[in-house]
Write a structure and sequence with these properties.
With 491 residues, the chain is mainly α. The chain contains 22 helices and ten strands.
Length: 491
């Protein structure tokens, strides 16, 4: 059975690739041969990764993905494959359907002539699976090229030549400078020997990062010593770019685990007083963001006026916890909710489903925090039925209401979907652009603790979640209209 499924999958990819689209034929004339070959070699992998999501996404009148849906698909793809948040693919605080065209993302990352070809075809009909995969492979190739350019800068900082072979240790130092620049974009000068010397002070995980770099050197070059050409260092950087997000995700899980130790009786919430108290009293320095900045991040639940709380998944996934950033992308935590959504999308294989089918699918889902399947609370069944009633008997899988329902079902893994608004910013961006105080002072932290009526202990049992614990409202924002999908499905 498994072999048969693998053969069907291979046949599907070969069939798609055999039918070269007009888009690809036009791009043949615009892309350098070596770059085009590199992109085309990645397309089959992109097709396999995108296919389940593509099938489940709403389509336009041509039965293809429109602007906002392509953007969403690529956003999900890079988050799941590399833990990359590619700049220009996020909706910048707007609803996905209201986002500006994909041209903003394309024109900032590729030559104008190449961006124009993608934009023209997207405007005319939208993208099918192969075309979306080709765009994804192109963006990935350009990100790798950006990484190589940043490696050249690191060589320049150390005054190392790009021609000829260099000693293993010299290349290792250049790769470390490359990583320092990436980890501390905006507030670190890797060209300063003094800053490089104190990197461990500002990033305690630096020794582990050095071990990660050396491991990628060995695996990319199949060497453990000797000399390396620059092209070999390029291969190392490409491998590092692919793997760093997954490697560093252990920090995200540790951060979440530490935060959940202060969880209130409402799952997925930590009272702001406990959040700041952990920093002031327990030395958890990472939980020092100010109340204003937490609000700007979309990580603050203020339904209880006198006892605001931090929303755990929103906080863990916020810019405050990004692990590195360049002009093109940031390395972020892997989104646990997308893993759950992927399971659902593979089973449903459509943009919408009935409440009964959704319940039958999710009842067996487990997570690291909830390792056993559970019986869904009655109020969650009522909420799902209310979504279906709102949409004429079906539940769209890619809208705000269903995301809100998933947050209620998995409050530690799935983010609470706030309404469209200002986009969260990195700490230094927020400080520079808004003037908000990013870090709370000791006095602010003490005030948060004092304002909290009582520190409640963690409650790991699902039945202690009750209907009024988490906010619920019926404001919807869809990824895309479902009219065409209803037509193709016969509904």
């Amino acid at each position: 059975m498994i072999l048969r499924m693998q053969l069907v999958s291979v046949f599907f990819v070969m069939q798609v690739l055999a039918e070269r689209s007009e888009l690809e034929l036009e791009l043949d004339e615009q892309l350098p041969v070596d770059q085009r070959l590199g992109i085309e070699s990645r397309v089959p992998t992109m097709i396999e990764a995108l296919k389940p999501l593509y099938v489940a996404l709403p389509k336009n009148e041509h039965n293809k993905l429109a602007h906002g849906t392509v953007r969403y698909a690529l956003y999900r793809l890079f988050r799941q494959t590399h833990a990359w948040l590619v700049k220009g693919l996020t909706p910048s605080g707007q609803a996905w359907s209201a986002s500006s065209s994909l041209s903003d993302a394309l024109e900032s990352k590729m030559p104008q002539n190449v961006a124009d070809v993608f934009e023209k075809h997207l405007d005319e009909t939208g993208f099918n699976l192969e075309e979306a995969a080709f765009l994804a492979a192109t963006l990935e190739e350009l990100i790798f090229q950006e990484s190589i350019e940043r490696l050249k800068i690191a060589y320049g900082i150390l005054k190392l030549p790009l021609e000829g072979a260099l000693a293993w240790d010299q290349v290792s130092q250049a790769l470390e400078v490359y990583m320092m620049e990436y980890l501390y974009e905006g507030n670190f000068d890797a060209s300063s020997p003094d800053d490089r010397a104190r990197v461990k002070e500002v990033y305690p995980n630096w020794p582990a990062t050095q071990r990660f770099i050396r491991k990628q050197m060995r695996e990319a070059t199949h060497k453990a010593e000797g000399e390396l050409e620059f092209v070999e260092a390029e291969n190392v950087v490409t491998l590092m770019s692919k793997r760093f997000g997954h490697w560093q995700d252990i920090e995200c899980r540790e951060l979440k685990h530490t935060l959940l130790a202060y969880e209130s009786s409402c799952q997925g919430r930590v009272d702001l007083g406990d959040f700041h108290g952990s920093a002031a009293g327990d030395g958890k320095w990472q939980f020092s963001e100010s109340e204003d900045y937490l609000r700007q991040l979309g990580a603050l639940d203020e339904q209880k006026d006198k006892r605001p709380s931090v929303i755990v998944p929103n906080y863990v996934d916020s810019p405050s916890n990004y692990l590195g950033s360049s002009e093109t992308y940031s390395t972020v935590c892997l989104d646990e909710c997308w893993t759950l959504m992927s399971q659902l999308e593979r089973t449903i294989a459509a943009p919408f489903a009935t409440p009964a089918k959704i319940i039958n699918t999710v009842k067996g889902f487990t997570t690291s925090e909830n390792p056993e399947p559970r019986v869904l609370p009655a109020y969650l069944l009522r909420h799902l039925e209310s979504i279906a009633k709102f949409h004429g008997g079906i539940v769209p899988l890619h809208g705000r209401l269903f995301a809100q329902w998933m947050h209620h079902l998995f409050p530690r893994e799935c983010q609470y979907p706030f309404f469209s608004g200002a986009a969260p910013m990195l700490p230094y961006e927020s400080q520079n652009k808004t003037g908000l105080k990013v870090m709370a002072s000791p006095e602010d932290m003490a005030a948060s603790e004092q304002a909290m009526n009582e520190a409640l202990k963690a409650s790991p049992l699902l039945h202690k979640i009750h209907e009024s614990c988490l906010p619920w409202n019926m404001q919807e924002e869809l990824l895309a209209p479902l009219d065409n999908d209803r037509r193709y499905s016969g509904l």
